[in-house]
Each structure stands twice: as structure tokens, then as C-alpha cells.
Design goal:
It is a single chain. This protein is α/β, with parallel strands linked by helices. The chain contains eleven helices and nine strands. It has a six-stranded mixed sheet, sandwiched between helices. Strands 5-7-8 form a three-stranded mixed sheet. A hairpin with a 2-residue loop joins strand 1 and strand 2. Helix 10 runs antiparallel to helix 11. The radius of gyration is 18 Å and the shape is globular. The protein starts with a strand and ends with a helix.
């Protein structure tokens, strides 16, 4: 039985973490399911947007330490990087959503801790409920944020805020998370906000949407010269497509 559900609604994919009784604590099985579902979505040209959420009282309480500690061999096996991707299973469970051509919108409620937060940060846009709370809690367990958190935190908040969140492992509320850029917007109904945004994005040309996402992902921390080169390389196929469509 999958711990991650995929529901198609027209041109939209609803992806939900589905261990509600455990506040969607992440197991190795769940990480594999996240990678698998992302690959299914990525192969579907008819899917325009993705909404990522969690069933039950929380988006995700983070890595299920007790569940993963019971199978150290599986943890070790999935910690090894996949050569052609440059990520291991823990990282790919998050970064697979960043790789998708479709925009991914996270709708966050309840707890969003540790690996769950890193999954939400891998989405392109994050809506959060007013009562949601967040924590980069790995240091509390003697670890570091290693499910792509070093990349996403560095893109969203300054190094001082990233260190403050990481070194203290403090829980912060949604208002603070919005103020520092950890979430895009706090709203009473994050799922409804995600649906409305998905409708607006779906009204735009899909190739331009995918190209814009790829442009920013590839160039966000690049130098000016490289960024301008990426701009040109991304724009040229769109110009050609537009020209051909008019002939």
C-alpha cells in the first residue's frame, strides 16, 4: 500500500503524504514512494500543475527516526548517491519535485518539521495555514538537514536565518516563516489558495511555464555571464516554437 497518494483532477495532480496517524512521519518506504510518484507525474504531459499536501493533522512531522532506525541496512543502502542523478534516496525524495517541469505548490498545515520541511521547501510555492509550525530540527537529533535543505534554505533565507533555524532547532510559527521567506504566503485555506494559483498557472503556455521554472532553477546562484547564457539557451526554443506555430 502506497504511503503517498496521487489523484488526477483534469490537468492537475494532487499528491498527498498518507500516514495521517503518524503525522506523515517519513519512512524509507515513503521516501521511495515520493520518488516513484514524482517520476510518474514527470512523464505525464497532460499534467500542468502539482499540489503537494499531507493527509491528517499535519503536513509532515519529519523523518520517522524510530521507523528508520529499525532497518539500518536499508538506511545505509539508500544513503548512497545515485550516480546519474547526484542524489541519494533521501535527497531525491525532495529534489525530484524540483526536477519536474510542472510547478509544484505545497499546501502546508499542522507540523512541518525536519525532512517534511525540506520537502515543502523543494516545492516552487508554499502556502501555509495560520496554525502551521515549522522546524529545522535535525540538529536536535545530532544530525544536519541533508534532504536538500542546504540548497533550498540558501535560496530562500539569508545564511544568518538559515543558521538560526538550524542551530537552535526552534519551532517557529507561520507568521515568522512568512516574514523570513520560508513560506510564500499564510492563508486561512492553503489548499484553496493552491487550487486558485494552479488555475492561473494552467492558463499560461505550458512550455513557457516549464522553461521559466528551469531558468530560475539553473541560474539562481549563477554569475551574471552564466545566467545570461542560460537565458538565451532557454529562450531560443520558445522563439522557434512561436515562429513555427504562426507558419
Amino acid at each position: 500500500m502506497s504511503t503517498v497518494s496521487l489523484t488526477l483532477d483534469g490537468d492537475r495532480a494532487h499528491v498527498a503524504l498518507d500516514r495521517p496517524d503518524k503525522h506523515n512521519g517519513l519512512t524509507v518506504e515513503m521516501l521511495r514512494d515520493l520518488v516513484r510518484v514524482a517520476r510518474v507525474v514527470g512523464r505525464r504531459d497532460d499534467i500542468r500543475t502539482v499540489i503537494l499536501s499531507g493527509n491528517g493533522p499535519s503536513f509532515s512531522s519529519g523523518l520517522d527516526i524510530a521507523g528508520t532506525a529499525g532497518d539500518p541496512l536499508a538506511v545505509a543502502r539508500h544513503f548512497l548517491p545515485i550516480p546519474w542523478l547526484g542524489t541519494n534516496t533521501f535527497q531525491e525524495a525532495c529534489w525530484a519535485w524540483r526536477r519536474l517541469p510542472q510547478p509544484v505548490i505545497a499546501a502546508v498545515h499542522g507540523h512541518c518539521f525536519g525532512g517534511g520541511l525540506q520537502l515543502a521547501l523543494a516545492a516552487d510555492i508554499r502556502y501555509a495555514a495560520p496554525d502551521a509550525d515549522f522546524s529545522v530540527m535535525e540538529v536536535k537529533h545530532g544530525l544536519i538537514p541533508d534532504m536538500t535543505g542546504a540548497v533550498t534554505l540558501s535560496r530562500l533565507v539569508g545564511i544568518d536565518k538559515a543558521l538560526l533555524l538550524t542551530l537552535t532547532a526552534d519551532r517557529v510559527d507561520a507568521a515568522y516563516a512568512e516574514r523570513i521567506g520560508l513560506v510564500t504566503e499564510v492563508t486561512a485555506d492553503p489548499r484553496a489558495a493552491a487550487e486558485k494559483l494552479a488555475d492561473r498557472i494552467a492558463a499560461r503556455p505550458p512550455h513557457a511555464v516549464a522553461s521559466a521554472k528551469r531558468l530560475f532553477d539553473r541560474s539562481w546562484h549563477a554569475g551574471v555571464r552564466r545566467t545570461l547564457g542560460i537565458e538565451r539557451a532557454t529562450q531560443l526554443p520558445l522563439i522557434v516554437r512561436q515562429a513555427l506555430s504562426k507558419n
